[in-house]
Amino acid sequence: MVPSRRTVLAASAAGVAGLAALGGTTRGRTPRTVPATVPGDPDARIGFVGDVMLGRNVDDRWSRSTAPESTVDPAGVWGSTLDSLQALDGLVLNLECCLSARGERRPGRTYYFRADPEWAIPALEAANTAFASLANNHLLDYGPTALLDTVGHLSRAGIATAGAGHDWAAAVRPAVVTIGDIDVGLVALTDQVRSYRAGSDAPGTAWTPLGPRNPVTRRRVVAALRAVHRRDPDLVVASLHWGPNWEVRPSGRQRRTARWLIDEGVDVVHGHSAHVIQGIEVYCGRPIVYDAGDYVDDYVVKPHFQNDRSVRVELVVEDGRLDRLHVAPVEIVDERVEPATGEVAAWVRDRMRTLSAEFGTPVERDGRGLSVPLASE
Questions:
Q1: For residues 270, 274, 279 and 280, what is the CA-based torsion angle, rounded to 10 degrees?
Q2: pLDDT of residue 32
Q3: pTM of the model
Q4: φ, ψ of residue 256 in degrees (nearest 5)
Q5: Segments making up each domain of the chain, as ranges
Q6: Is it the case that residue 204 has pLDDT exceeding 50?
Q7: Going by C-beta distance under 8 Å and a sequence separation of 6 or more, which residues neighbour residue 171?
Q8: Which of 105, 199, 200, 243 has the most Cβ atoms closer than 10 angstroms to its Cβ?
Q9: Which of 116, 152, 241, 136 lies closest to 198, judged by CA?
């Protein structure tokens, strides 16, 4: 971490008690055909972004409690990207802060992220947010009260969540969200800050060591995927807050985990946490976004990493086929998100093209952004 600088239908996956079951596999539930398809031949555009941190200076900038209400539009945090967000059928993001006016700072932490829900919820609604992953290392910064407030505020707004809850069963419970005409099942996990892990009767996050060779992880992940598959979604997403900060390439363990998840029935791997963008891999016609970077925050910019530059990844489904990804460069300017242009957009394109090429991923120019074909593999 660094210092400062809908129709949506959420449904709990049934049978989460089965998360205690041992081993097993979900392979065969979803044939790994190429191109990947969803039933009913729908068209959809689903957006994915990385960390959305609405606390500290971002909160000060946009909160109605710190400025006259007439001068504050919560949607302003999205800058000129708002139209693109609202054109999506739904947005999937990692919420890197709690949303509450309550709670006490958890001892032993260096950075604490909390935003006022009075502005943050309207902002998330304006961005067409369908799902917020809560499996990360900041949901418990202000203790269990603020964590539970976050879940409650999002639920009342019709924004689905997974990855944190009032106990372990709730934290690992998948969500099923209708985005456009597609039922999307989502599992959210993190390997960040073990002490934030939910207990059998204690609020926290869905923490687990992420790696297919770990028997505990295999048991937990396979059980979570079984739970979401029982809801019979059209598309399954694994949203992962994982890996070390400031690494521009995923580790071998992350690559093995991502491919294993797809083998087990996941259709999209949505990674975040490193504060920088990493490359995109296409495996069995399904995208692995290893890290989407930071979409909005107030962090000090490290020039070598340019952590104020990231992407919005849009999964384009045409006639029921996972056709391509559109990758739109963005940058953070004064605690808001703006479309990247000129040299900044070129830098993001070059970085994404270079890192993705290491996985053999074809990347094509698409206006100011990039296109990653999925159906041609």
A1: 0
A2: 77
A3: 0.92
A4: -65, -40
A5: 11-373
A6: yes
A7: 135, 163, 164, 165, 197, 198, 204, 205, 206
A8: 243
A9: 136
